[in-house]
Amino acid sequence: MIRRAFLAFAAVAALTAQAWSAEIGEDGLHKQDWFALTFRDVAEDIETAKEEGKRLVMIFEQRGCIYCAKMHETLLSDPEVADFIKANFKVVQYNMFGDEEVTDLDGEVLTEKTAARKWGFVFTPTLMFLPEEVPEGKTAAEAAVATMPGAFGKWTFLNMFKWVSEKGYEGDEHFQKYHARIINELRAAGRLDAE
């Protein structure tokens, strides 16, 4: 009986680990099967996300980035985090040093690496959250409603997605105050397991 229980536990653990592990693509970046594959036309991606009832978030990563690996293996593998993002956001992955073509909101055609430079990204991962409507005459970086450089703990990461989803950037509650309030609520409910 103990042996059967152990084998059942081992099988579930193996399936869980397999389901939560992110594949690494030919470009050396970790992949989630729910990331969107697009032509990297930012205006088009904003419109497509809106048609799907979602918001666009762009994630810049690079080969060998330990923080990107942490984001995939710890944060994006957490069902609570992944389920919220999948339900509310269209995620497009960019390679900080990639050569794929990108069309910025201002119409300029760049490579991923020149877009990263133009938008001022120097750290990976960097997440850029875009507005629901395509603005005129702005670059993606100028139009972004929020940018998150780095892989933080679960609640900071998830709360940023929630804050953007709730359009917190339009209100008076700065993200840091929003995050502190949510942490206090989680603590009071006995749900705080990280941070």
Which structural traits does this protein have?
195 residues, alpha+beta, Glutaredoxin, 8 helices, 16% strand, disordered N terminus
Low-confidence stretches: 1-20
Strand order of the largest sheet: 4-3-7-8
What is the average per-residue confidence, as pLDDT, rounded to a whole number?
Answer: 89
- Helical content class: 40-55%
Rg (C-alpha, Å) = 18 Å
Shape category: globular
Named CATH architecture of the domain at 24-152:
3-Layer(aba) Sandwich
Class by helix and strand content?
alpha+beta
CATH class placement of the domain at 24-152: Alpha Beta
β-strand amount: 15-25%
Write the CATH fold name of the domain at 24-152.
Glutaredoxin
Describe the largest sheet: 4 strands, mixed
Name of the CATH superfamily of the domain at 24-152: Glutaredoxin
Could you give the count of β-strands? 8
Number of helices: 8
H/E element sequence: HEEHEHHEEEHEHEHH
Quote the distance from N terminus to C terminus. 39 Å
